[in-house]
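Suppose a colleague, Dr. K., hands you the sequence of a protein chain of 736 amino acids and asks what its three-dimensional shape might be. Before reaching for any lab equipment, you can write down a predicted structure in token form. Begin with the sequence itself:
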Amino acid sequence: MEHVPALDEPLKKSLGPATAKVMAEALGLHTVGDLLHHYPRRYAERGELTTLSDLPLDEHVTVVAQVADARVLTFNGAKGRGQRLEVTITDGSGRLQLVFFGKGVHKPHKELLPGTRAMFAGKVSLFNRRLQLAHPAYELLRGDGGEAAEAVGSWAASLIPIYPATTKLESWKISKAVDAVLPSAADAVDPLPAALREGRGLLALPDALRQIHRPRTKADVAAARDRLKWDEAFVLQVALARRRHADTQLPAVARRPAPDGTLAAFDAKLPFTLTEGQEKVSKEIFDDLATEHPMHRLLQGEVGSGKTMVALRAMLAVVDAQGQAALLAPTEVLAQQHHRSVTEMMGELAEGGMLGGAERATKVVLLTGSMGAAARRQALLDLVTGEAGIVIGTHALIEDKVQFHDLGLVVVDEQHRFGVEQRDALRGKGKQPPHLLVMTATPIPRTVAMTIFGDLETSVLDQLPAGRSPIASHVVPAADKPHFLTRAWERVREEVGNGHQAYVVCPRIGDDADQEAGRKKTKASAGDEAEKRPPLAVLDVAEQLRTGPLAGLRVAVLHGRMHPDDKDDVMRRFAAGELDVLVATTVIEVGVNVPNATVMVIMDADRFGVSQLHQLRGRVGRGSAPGLCLLVTEMPEASPARQRLGAVAATLDGFELSRIDLEQRREGDVLGQAQSGARSSLRMLAVIDDEEVIAAAREEATALVLADPELEAHPGLRTALDALLDEEREEYLEKG
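The predicted structure, expressed as tokens, is then:
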């Protein structure tokens, strides 16, 4: 049997089965390497301690402080006389009370004498309006008489690592476990090529691991962090660079538009000129389509920046070159909407017979899961014969039955709704790999694009087409100021009175299946009353509005569990102006285009993410009249949720909002890790703050892979790559 490398050694060999079990269950740490990569969250100094003045309520904390006084009180309880030990600790910034009861008072009473310094860990609770820790675990930080003076001295000189901990596993227990395995750091295989490491003045990996866990100075910590950030950025960028390199090795059919083909005819009949941004991005796409390996491009643009127009021109270029194009949309509502807008934009050019026929028209078909059998059969036939140059559909496009005559381009709308398997399944339907254009209206900061979509080249549309109106956004604090909500409904009536239409968005549908899910969620969530009640539901709110503040207006509902024909009918009537108010779930989040809708009221806006609110808001102000978005919430003014809503109301810049969104979420969620249940592989790298490291790592990785695609000269890097690309993480390279 081959020798197990030191860092792959199971923890139970070095720490014993009991500790190893708690490490695995509480922190997901299984091997020596896992523990060495469980870095301290921060460091306490002997003189500088966690500020006791601003401890978070209900959180598990570790503090380093000095005992100011301790006293035992006797009280009469239900079980007779009892004892309570109250210890006050201080760190110079504030004071905190510790309490111990019953038989648990004797040991701390002897040990926690005034002047004693210790680490304390426990859950912060409130008693008589004062913060306290009840029965905290503690570790004394100075030797009593019997201990050697040099132990005290060495402790005094060092920084104390505070680890991310849990109730079952205090920071100092993790610290002792790290001490046991730290000698193994000497055997860590370094993934960074020596030339890169020396060129950038980075520590060797064993040194970095030792310094991050047992630094002597703050400079030690900084040097270790710099090195460990590089590991994470570089290994990930090598994985992405290898993907890009592999894609350039694939063959594809070059698709060049004919000078007098469908695209030229389409451009000639456009009633407006393209924006500079649309022209520039279209050129990037046409240059890619003209090459003999598959295009892999991410097109990101604000809501309403004209992405659909750019995608349609790319699809027409492929049709001109005797190929077919498929547009994959995440929902039926969106697929139908795209189909409607594409056929309207193309006019008679969408009524064609054969590909490349003399009349320069082609056929545009829709394919969704809920189509009738006859319509579906016809659509499938049009695809396999090549009669249809463009197909727009949902996941139904991916099914085995769907065959193409010659698939040349796949356009994926709202990438974050699709897993890598779905994207690849559709690409697998071409005779050769088709070109790929991924679109998203969720603005992604540059570093995140380099990290998540690192296998795609990126184009950004950041101008809005002429004629777009500004959107005013306001927070409506329904609990603090109920009259603001009354005024919101008055504004809706005013807009409708002026001939416009409105959306009201709710987080939940409100039918039985939905209620059950709501009940389960409610039990789990704690905290504020506004948090505890189930989110507002479409069916309930619509009824209240019909009989209350919006009585007399034409109100309809739209949600994901309606029959597709009913959904389409409601959308058609709303678009035609036959309805005044649409009460909907987030099915309207992407792609729905009704220029006459000018106001949107989002109920329980705090239940939505920042990017989602920005997406929803983009549904109004799409015509010449200004848009208004009202964010209704019952959350108190000081809450983080209210601050988040304030940020959304304060700016229309999606890139700025995506930064805010990212700063408020865990880095791992951003990398699609939350779905797979794997821990984020980014422990040290912050995608937002470490832009320079990521950009430099991408350059270095691209050069290295170009010179050595199989990494034959870099065995350490290959090992690190295998660890990153284990099954759990394989997916995130293409997940948004």
